[in-house]
Amino acid sequence: MTEPVLPRTGIAVDVHAFADDQECAAAEDGLVPLWLAGLYWPGERGLSGHSDGDVVAHAAADALFSAAGCGDLGSNFGVDRPDMKGASGLRILAEAAEIVSRAGFTPGNIAVQLVGQKPKFAPRRDEAQAALTRAAGCSVTVSATTSDHLGFTGRGEGLTAVATALVIPTP
Ligand SMILES: Nc1ccn([C@@H]2O[C@H](COP(=O)(O)O)[C@@H](O)[C@H]2O)c(=O)n1
Ligand SMILES: C[C@@]1(CO)OP(=O)(O)OP(=O)(O)OC[C@H]1O
Q1: Does ligand 1 come within 6 angstroms of the Cβ of 116?
Q2: Helical H runs in the chain?
């Protein structure tokens, strides 16, 4: 009997700290820019990272790798590769979708939840989902929640994103 071809699910979490005062002082206009869910957030303190620190895009990419059994962010992009310095989350997500497709899987959809007090995400949800969906080549939806001022996200020390993805073995 032949095995049924089933979709596969993946899961991922990404965390980045907000840039500290020293990093902001070293930045061009005194504030590290925030890149989140593929969008620039004017006036908001940015995240630390080797890349642009976009937790939403990173969690989305890592969930695709998880679903396809293609390793993870670090095994595909390294943790300090010079060519990834400042890399945008949208680039990482697009490249992850490409890697997964080459491995024989069609990305089905990705669902991400952002955890943090700010920025207030909901007003820009449609814009963010459109940018992420374009990069991934499949539907990406994003919800957001605070942690009720609890923990490191609640204290405004950083952001977390949790993601699931579905991929379908390409016939
Ligand atoms: N960074 C965030 C966090 C939350 N939201 C929206 O607020 C709603 C209520 O959040 P609670 O944590 O108090 O349940 C949430 O459902 C989101 O719609 C947001 O936009 N940005
Ligand atoms: C994306 C990568 C690329 O160097 O950079 P970081 O900004 O460190 O982000 P992280 O989510 O910790 O994943 C690791 C890296 O692959």
Answers
A1: yes
A2: 21-26, 55-68, 73-77, 89-102, 125-136, 151-154
State pLDDT tens for residues 15-43. 999 999 999 999 888 889 999 999 999 99
Helix 125-136 × helix 89-102 angle, to 10°: 40
| Neighbour count for residue 80 (Cβ, 10 Å) | 8
> Stretch 77-106: mean pLDDT, rounded?
97
Question: For the residues 130-135, what does the mean pLDDT come to?
Answer: 98
Q: Which residues contact 64 (CB under 8 A, 6 or more apart)?
A: 10, 70, 93, 96, 97, 100, 107, 110, 136, 165, 167
The class level of CATH for 8-169 reads alpha beta
At residue 38, the pLDDT reads 98
What letter represents residue 135's amino acid? A
Q: Which ligand is nearest to the CA of 113?
A: 1
Q: Which residues line ligand 2 (CB under 6 A)?
A: 14, 49-51, 53, 58, 73-74, 77-79, 81, 84, 92
For residue 45, say whether it is annotated as part of any ligand binding site. Answer: no
Q: How far is 56 from 53, CA to CA, in rounded Å?
A: 9
Alpha helix locations (H) across 4-54? 21-26
Q: Which ligand is nearest to the CA of 119?
A: 1
